[in-house]
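Input for the complex:
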Amino acid sequence: MNPFGLLLGAATLLIIGLGFVWVIRGERYFGRLWWPYVMTAGLVCILLSLLLPNDWLSALLGAFGASLAWGSTELKSQAVRAELGWYPFEEKKFFPPFASVIKKWKAPSL
Amino acid sequence: MLNWIGLVAAFCTFLGVWLGHVSVRWIERQVARLWIPSAGFAALGLGLEFASLWTFGLSPLIAAGCGILGVTLLVDSHELFRQQERVRRGRASANPHNPRHARILAEHPDAVPFDWLDREPRGQAYSAEELRLIREAGR
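Predicted:
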């Protein structure tokens, strides 16, 4: 038996679970406009995973990168959820560089 | 030499989370008997996990893909019922053409036939009065 896939699946589940936490907290304090930075960080993680010779490290970094990319598409919906009162809403947020430019872009939402 | 396992893990993670969000929402909205797709997800998930255990000697890419997709499908089989709970609480839209959802709309005062999230963020919280007006308009 090869437990690698099962254990990797369990580890990925933890990474995805962590994604819910940082999306909620991140949107609350930093806002949805960080999405291009988060998406870029995710794609960079995935590309870096190609260079890691260790299977475990490569797979975990790839899964983490995908979870960042997914989370970046969730920030917009999370912002609406907070405005509706489903999650705590923080009015003063720490906006990203070029926030006024990013505001004009259509945020991805899947 | 490039190690493709990270890319496979990334693809399967993204696909798994996408399935968990989009397909779970769609299926829960359309299907009258929720246990049928739930059992299907569980069977598929278990099948993939068993497959991942028996990949010894094969490429670890296969084990990684089966392991990640299997786990996300197992979560989805439970997530269908959590989505139903969101419909009851009005956090997801109910489908009046689905008999199960029609019952939810009749029995749960918070359930709504529209999607609260189908709007752009505006940068400020909604007041109770605004929420009441949105709810009235949606109904």
